[in-house]
Amino acid sequence: MFNIFRVGLPVASSVVMYTCLKNPVLNEGKRNFYANNTADIIPGSPQEEGSELVKLVAKRENGSGSALQKQFKRLRLWTDEYLEAVRRCYIEKSDAYFRKERQVTDTITSLHDKTELLWPNSIYILTGFMTGLVLTRKRNILLRATVPLACGLVAFSAFMPATFNKTASWLSGVEEHKLPDVYRKQAKIIEKTEDLVQRSESLKQENEKIVSKYYQKTRKTIGDMTGLTVDEPVTDKKD
After folding, report:
1. Consecutive H or E run containing 134
2. Which of 70, 125, 157, 169 is deepest in the core (most CB within 10 A)?
3. Using only C-alpha atoms, what is the Rg of the chain?
4. Can you tell me whether residue 135 is helix, strand or coil?
5. For 227, left (φ over 0), alpha (ψ -120 to 50), or beta?
6. Where are the domains of the chain?
7. Contact between 159 and 121 (Cβ < 8 Å)
8. What is the C-alpha to C-alpha distance for residues 68 and 50, in angstroms, rounded to an integer?
9. Per its UniProt record, what InterPro entries does this chain match (predicted)?
10. Quick one: which H or E segment has residue 146?
């Protein structure tokens, strides 16, 4: 029995080795492994795991996170536009205010006559205005609104006449430019008033002439009737 295994095992091993090594491996110096690879090479498809990762990233970009980012972007853009609009409005309003302030200061400077002192005269004008307030403190609302202003204007024209005339001329020009209808009506009223004043003056002079004429005529008549010389000056009576 032992002899059978002893002889059969080498024989079986030889048969197996022969079967496996039917195509002998040549011991060549340079082997051409890819000599028979004549077919087109097709690249391999991506792995399923990579495709799922791409889908997950795309879903996240198109999901709630992307919508929130869009909302924040819109809010940021709206905030930037609003702040820019506020800045432009502030700059425009500031420029308009400073231009108007310069116009007012330049106008006041041009109206003031340098020969008239501003400090004491302004105190006098304020005193005139306050005098009107004191005089009308127990009067009706119309007098309390007009009399102090009239007193202030009278004091203004008395203590600063040149500045008052310049101011009146400037106000007249502004009224003519801004309110032409009111200016024309006011000009007509002033013209009629001046005409009435001139007529009153001329009528006064005519009345004075008439009265003087009748007075002279009456004196002459009395002198003729009494035989007195009324044209001679009266002398003092002697003791």
Report:
1. helix 118-135
2. 125
3. 61
4. helix
5. left
6. 55-111, 114-161, 179-227
7. yes
8. 27
9. MIC26/MIC27, Mic26_fungi
10. helix 141-159
